[in-house]
Amino acid sequence: MSAITLYTGAMLQGAVITLELTAGATVVSLIAGAAGAVGRLYGPRTLKAFIFGYVETIRGLPAILQLFILYFGLTQFGIDVPAYWAAFIWLCLYGTGYAIEIFRAGLQGIPEGQHEATAALGLTRFEAMRRVIIPQAWVAMLPALTNFVVLELKNTTLVYFIGVQDIMFHARLGVSNSGQPLAIYGIAALIYIVLNGTISRVGGILEKRAAIAS
Amino acid sequence: MSSDVVVELDGVRKCFGPRVIFDDVSLSVHRSEVVAVIGPSGAGKSTLIRCINQLNTFEKGVIRVLGHEVYGTEEGRPPLRRDDLRRLRTEIGMVFQTFNLFPHLSVMKNVMLAPQRVKGRSEAEAAAQAQELLEMIGLSHRKDAYPRQLSGGEQQRVAICRALAMEPEVMLFDEPTSMLDPELVGEVLAAIRRLAVDGMTMILVTHEMMFAKEIADTVVVVADGGIAEMGPAKEVLSTPKTERARSFLERVLLHTGGDTGPQAAASEGGFDAASGGFDDPTLSWSREVDEKGLR
Ligand SMILES: Nc1ncnc2c1ncn2[C@@H]1O[C@H](COP(=O)(O)OP(=O)(O)OP(=O)(O)O)[C@@H](O)[C@H]1O
Ligand SMILES: [Mg+2]
């Protein structure tokens, strides 16, 4: 009993790390993803090609391989990134790859006539994006973005492989020390359900608000 | 180029890939002139007016709009700088066949957006102007509605307000009523008629021959890769000189003409205003609808 209390406390501490990584990487990925999608769609040819290649690489390689290349591979060059930051950087790079695709699909879904109307009125590309295209794409993208955050949070479990002390790290530790896998993994599952349930909930509220506003 | 020419096309050629849509199109539009562009589907009417505000580029020739000169891509001149292109577009209002209102913005915000973001007007100024325009067009009671809550006719009238809010020197209309239910056409035509009366320079692509005849000073028939015929509206529509214009107008009339129109015209082998090729009953019918549309 006390082992379970002990490791539940540790897992909750791990949850703070998990949330930090998720929140930070989500913010970075969404900003970089939006910029990347705009570049992918409207940028000069070389930029388009670069972003295309980037997205394909992120999508094509197994997540764990990317993390290992980043963490272990760089040490070969004498670059020693602390595990926490390696994890964070990887989550940002990985998330950005997927966010670019979500934003690209969202932006492409806006009818050509909307772009033409902004052009005919003399709006700059930037103002058109900001006032007309992105606000509309945003509404259409909300479900995909909610899903994105949930996946990003689940991806954080992989960072346990490089020793970052997230929920999963403490769960593994707790199981091997207490020998009660069902109870401890069950509690870990509960924590993930609560976290992801909250994200879905927030996404749902945003969707409803967006639907009313448009 | 005389000083009151607002839009001038000189030897303009437009291709899509290897396909030449039209070539050697020249046209001058003077201040307060209303030009109706008619012609068969696919002839390039939309493309022609879209070249004027550079929604389409063109290959050869030059287009002048007030002080701005745009050369075809093959003329070896540098393309318009981005800011110059925007400035050119602020002088030109455009109304689309499909309205293209911004669905996430209210009617008011649709009209206010460009004045605020392009002309740097304050919110209060932009709102006052939008209010005035919407009142003029009979839609101020719908100012807080969203586009999807409006009928097609109302949407198109808002789109006209949105374009007018930029105080353009010339308005382009691309079949503004062809997506509308017949009973909604009149209210939009009434709005356009009002602009004509106020002296707005306009280029209007339309299939509404009656309306073209009523408000246009000049009619341009686009067909077979160029301007088939161009001249005073009443002349071109009643007594077209070229075979191409004549055959097009005959076909249009067969579809839209009254009981006597087409047959009478066909039997006389031409179009005479007096013979009823374009009978006035239709004209007055459309006026009646218009008045309802504008209260
Ligand atoms: N973006 C494009 N790419 C390739 N071809 C195009 C494009 N836009 C138009 N066309 C072609 O150019 C021709 C002229 O088109 P346009 O839309 O200007 O005709 P229109 O006279 O306005 O016809 P309608 O009365 O049906 O509107 C058509 O054959 C059309 O298929
Ligand atoms: Mg057209």
Note down, in words, how this protein is organized.
- The complex is a heterodimer of chains A (214) and B (295).
- With 214 residues, chain A is mainly α.
- Helix content of chain A is 85%, strand content 0%.
- Chain A has a single domain (15-164), classed as MetI-like fold (Orthogonal Bundle), CATH 1.10.3720.10.
- In chain A, α4 (83-108) crosses α6 and α7 (167-178) runs antiparallel to α8.
- The longest helix of chain A is centred in the N-terminal third of the chain and has 41 residues, at 2-42.
- The model of chain A has no long low-confidence stretch (mean pLDDT 93).
- With 295 residues, chain B is of the alpha/beta class.
- In chain B, strands 6-7-8-3-9-10 form a 6-stranded mixed beta sheet, with helices on both faces. A 4-stranded antiparallel beta sheet of chain B has the order 2-1-4-5, covered by helices on one side.
- In chain B, a hairpin with a 2-residue loop joins β4 (60-65) and β5 (68-71).
- In chain B, α3 (107-117) packs across α4, α5 (152-164) packs parallel to α6 and α6 packs across α11.
- The longest helix of chain B has 16 residues, at 182-197.
- Chain B is globular, with a radius of gyration of 19 Å.
- The model of chain B is unreliable at 257-295 (pLDDT under 50).
- The interface between A and B is medium-sized, with 19 and 24 residues.
- The site of magnesium ion (MG) has 4 residues of chain B, from α1.
